[in-house]
Amino acid sequence: MAHYRGPESKREQFRRYLEKSGVLDTITSVLVALYEETDKPDNALDFIKLHLGAASPEPADVETLRTELADLQQKCNLLMGENKELRNRLMQYEPSPEERAVE
Known about the structure:
Blueprint: H1 10-20, H2 23-36, H3 44-52, H4 59-93, H5 97-102
Helix pairs in contact: 2-3
């Protein structure tokens, strides 16, 4: 019994979706890069992940980034506190907008 397909099959719709979104071009370029690689990698899947940007960062890199983030957050908090203190001190010497309007 033949399986009837409408004017456009779901498979064809999906293929066009992948083509429009650039997925086919990206995958093709990564596979071409793997094909043209003179020294083939031991793990082709890792090569593909790396070139697609899906490779996870090294644990040491993650830890370094976490430390840097914590340091920068602490520095930001200190600067925010300093900024608030300086604004308060400045308000002692400058009239408020309401006081300026009265003058």
